[in-house]
Design brief:
Cytidine Deaminase, domain 2; eight-stranded mixed β-sheet; Rossmann fold; 14 helices; 2 domains; 17 strands
Length: 479
């Protein structure tokens, strides 16, 4: 089953434990499918990013840095700043966290973690090679005065964010790097509401098409259902989907219908005749094409203005696409190693992860429909601690077994693992998953959520939803 873990031989742990290995060679020797090798190498690269960036020097560039802050840390900062430590003057209190830089050809980001409330630090007393974010809140705070009090060393990297409780939609933000102060692009809060704070004197936030001026009324009903703000978020959103089978293709179709600006599609499988019954809009002429190509052609015909990036068969393409900033990372896969790899990217890059799976289970002469949805917000956990695996012993064995070790049991084909697939079940689970994300964008859903469906034949469906599962102590997301 896609959502209930049936972990195959997982070389990710070996790559993380022995970074000196030639990763691609190891995975190829282990007989791992090509796309899984791509994603596994990406998980390794995401985990090793912190170590690699600590050895690099980040120079100012024409592109301004942005701060990526999980909502959980943002709320920690706001609570602490609005309710200061007893006996401490308001101007002496700050939210302080760690920064981790990330650069690619399109973006320069600082990822924030480990935010806590403390007295305003003096960085002359801190380690010379460290990166910090300092957030203060007050009506008359000034950047110049803050830098004078922080006294950062030339070798340190410090970002300062000053909030005015009268204007919480914007902020004063600057970066100290290489011994000088430079402006920043703003702050993105990842989680409920998905808000962005722009610099007080900076340009306004980039916006999508003005939904209130929709000439052909294409999105008029969408605006009526979600409101103008969420619709604008959709029209500027980037969604990456890994796996374009029955669930993934329906997911892509519905995101296109919602007006999502940019879809990134990752799958290296070929479309086969038995795929057509559950991939709407595809015809027999599509058989033999890459799934990414077939789905992209149909979506472009449906919405000519949509931007679609599709993976090719090269490793570099898969790595590059998955590492780029996405508003949502989606996995619709039937392999836990691939799911784990994407989850590690989401954890390492502070991105929201949506994992979807369906299954049919035999119960005597009847059939039970199973659905599994995990929407994971940065800071709450990962797929290993939210949902986990069915057989932990087997999963840990396959996860840690060295190359060439005997596997437990025999490898099973898809029809030995599950009875089949139903387009009705796929559509119901996929649409429920998307609605969770829409609720997150709108702010009505404030935490991670895990929803399970159980529907025995002839009975009523039963949904079980658990909100906010803390991954504290998880070796994969809280090392």
């Amino acid at each position: 089953m896609s959502g209930v873990s049936t972990l195959r031989r997982n070389p990710v742990a070996r790559c993380l434990a022995f970074p000196g290995y030639q990763t691609g060679t190891v995975l190829a020797a282990a007989g791992i499918p090509k796309i899984l090798r791509h994603l596994t190498m990406l998980a390794y690269k995401a985990r090793m990013t912190t170590d690699m960036t600590n050895q690099s020097t980040f120079r100012p560039s024409d592109q301004k840095w942005r701060i990526i802050l999980p909502r959980r840390h943002w709320e920690t900062a706001c609570r602490g700043l609005l309710l200061p430590i007893p006996g401490s003057p308001e101007h002496e209190i700050a939210a302080v966290g760690k920064l981790r830089p990330w650069k690619d050809r399109n973006r320069c980001e600082f990822l924030v973690s480990d935010v806590g409330i403390e007295r305003l630090p003096d960085f002359q007393m801190a380690h010379p090679y460290t990166r910090w974010i300092v957030i203060r809140c007050g009506e008359d705070l000034r950047l110049e005065e803050t830098w004078q009090r922080l006294r950062p060393r030339p070798s340190q990297v410090v970002a300062v964010v000053l909030l005015d409780p009268r204007r919480m939609e914007s902020c004063q933000v600057e970066l100290f790097q290489d011994g000088s102060v430079q402006p920043m692009g703003g702050l993105d809060i990842i989680g409920s509401g998905m808000y962005s704070l722009q610099p007080v004197e900076g340009s306004p936030a980039e916006s999508a098409v003005d939904v209130t001026n929709d000439d052909n009324n294409r999105y008029s009903r969408l605006v009526g259902a979600l409101g103008a703000r969420v619709t604008r978020q959709l029209q500027s959103a980037t969604v990456t989907i890994v796996g374009l089978g029955r669930n993934g293709s329906v997911m892509a179709s519905n995101f296109a219908a919602l007006g999502v600006a940019h879809l990134r599609l990752i799958d290296n499988d070929i479309l086969l005749p038995h795929n057509l019954d559950a991939m709407p809009g595809l015809s027999a002429d599509s058989v033999g094409k890459l799934k990414t190509l077939a789905v992209a052609e149909r979506l472009r015909a449906f919405r000519p203005n949509i931007l679609i990036s599709q993976i090719e068969r090269t490793t570099q393409d898969s790595l590059e696409i998955l590492q780029r900033r996405s508003d949502l990372l989606v996995t619709c896969v039937d392999n836990d190693a691939a799911r784990f790899a994407v989850s590690q990217v989401a954890v390492g890059r502070n991105m929201v992860h949506l994992d979807v799976a369906t299954d049919l289970v035999e119960q005597g002469n009847a059939t039970r429909l199973i659905g599994d949805i995990r929407l994971i917000v940065p800071g709450d956990g990962c797929v290993c601690c939210i949902g986990g695996v069915d057989d932990q012993s087997q999963a840990l064995y396959e996860y840690s077994a060295p190359v060439g070790a005997m596997s437990r049991g025999q490898r099973r084909t898809w029809n030995e693992q599950r009875r089949g697939s139903l387009v009705t079940l796929n559509g119901m689970i996929v649409n429920t998953a998307i609605q969770h994300w829409l609720d997150l964008l709108g702010g009505s859903l404030r935490t991670s959520v895990w929803t399970k469906l159980s529907w025995p034949s002839g009975q009523s469906p039963h949904f079980d939803t658990v909100e906010w599962i803390d991954g504290e102590g998880c070796r994969f997301c809280r090392p």
